[in-house]
Amino acid sequence: MTVKSPARIEAERLCKRFPAVPTMTLAKKLAKSHKKTIETARSLLRIIRGNTGDKARRQTTGKDSYRPPQPAGFTPEMPKSLAEPWLPFDLGNGHRTVILSDIHLPYHSPIALQATVKYFKKLKPDNVLINGDLMDWYGLSRYQKDPSKVDFNAEIDSGSEFLAWMRSVFPNCRIIYKFGNHDERWKIWVFNNAPLLEKLPKKMRIIAYECLVGLMEHVLECKNHGIETVKDQRPVMLGHLPVLHGHESGKAGLTSSVNAARGLFLKTLSTMLASHGHRTSQHSETDWRHKQTSTWSTGCLCELNPPYWRMGNRWNWGAAFVDVDSVGGFNVENFRIGPNGEIWK
Fold first, then answer.
1. Which of 26, 75, 150, 224 has the fewest CB atoms within 10 Å distance of its CB?
2. Is the same domain home to 93 and 60?
3. For residue 317, is it within any domain?
4. Which residues contact 253 (CB under 8 A, 6 or more apart)?
């Protein structure tokens, strides 16, 4: 049995830990820590890396540390980044866009939805933005569920029927469906169950992930109804107004002791509109140059007294209308809806 010297053990460790670092750089470190000349340390490292010829490479025990010889003066490159660009979904300028959100199908409010759509038709919009939580996906929730209400097929049918209805009501509008936190329950469920696919070859596994995550758009027939989708928590730009669902800022969401719009301001410090909080509100701040920053939160279109929060949630029905001029300036009409479908501005 061959006993390795401390210098040899350290040299093998350095080669495995820093495979891209030049040999001379490692030699200087090894020579200093083991009181050897730089050339002696370099020769040892070259042997371990298999850079002293084919015969020596076949005999060395450090085959897993082999690295092709590098030219003199070689410097390692920055590793390839896996980060992807996170760009907004831009609707441009010069349009009229209506915003409805937090419908939570099939736990929607027919009164609030009918009133909203009736009012929106009068405004003759160019775009309809479903700003998150179109679906509830009760059956995919990680929270405790009532087994009698778990009907996955019924949820799918409800979503597809709603999108077909929206297309019939707004036949000439561009309809955009931005995913909210409830819509993302589908993707989270897929990720949580992804280990079941581990036995598949890597390429097949990647394809399976992508297909399962994108399956939601297919079962809701988004493409058939001409519905565009916005995923990855990207903001939607209405001129100069960024629109979020509201969950993008983290677990705390738009929590605020005053109102949801103020919570949005404290999170972003930017002019913005969001939903998610199920409460209609507005907040404005002015800096020392008298530049004004305003935020809006929109109401919901779902039931106001769900079983998990019967009272005290301070929710209200509501929606919004944004008129964007030719240079990106905008005007926001953020309205509430009364218990009998009244539009309160």
1. 75
2. no
3. yes
4. 246, 247, 263, 276, 277
Backbone angles phi, psi at 293, to 5 degrees: -120, 125
Residues 230 and 290 in one domain: yes
Please tell me the total count of domains within the chain: 2
Verify that 15 and 123 share a domain, yes or no. no
pLDDT in tens, the chain (345 residues): 567 888 888 888 888 888 878 888 889 988 988 888 989 998 888 888 877 776 666 655 555 566 666 666 667 678 888 888 899 999 999 999 999 999 999 999 999 999 999 999 999 999 999 999 999 998 888 776 777 777 888 899 999 999 999 999 999 999 999 999 999 998 888 888 777 777 778 777 777 777 888 888 988 999 999 999 999 999 999 999 999 999 997 765 566 667 889 989 988 999 999 999 999 999 999 999 999 999 999 999 999 998 888 888 889 999 999 999 999 999 999 999 999 999 998
Same domain? 192 vs 47? no
Question: How far is residue 337's CA from residue 343's CA, in Å, rounded to a whole number?
Answer: 5
- What SS3 state is found at 302? strand
Q: Looking at the domain assignment, is residue 227 inside a domain? A: yes
Instruction: Find the CATH number of the domain harbouring 171.
Output: 3.60.21.10
State whether residue 90 is helix, strand or coil: strand
Q: What is the 3-state secondary structure (H, E, C) of 154-176?
A: HHHHHHHHHHHHHHHHCCCCEEE
Distance, CA of 316 to chain centre: 26
Is the distance from CB of 329 to CB of 239 less than 8 angstroms?
yes
Same-domain pairing of 49 and 126: no
Judged by DSSP in three states, 50 sits in coil
Structural domain that includes position 259:
89-344
Which of 29, 50, 65 is the last residue before a domain boundary? 65
Based on the fold, state whether residues 212 and 303 are members of the same structural domain: yes
Give every CB contact of residue 107 below 8 A, 6+ residues apart in sequence.
136, 138, 302, 303, 306
Residues near 274 by beta carbon (within 8 Å), at least 6 away in sequence: 131, 243, 244, 245, 246, 254, 260, 264, 295, 296, 297, 298
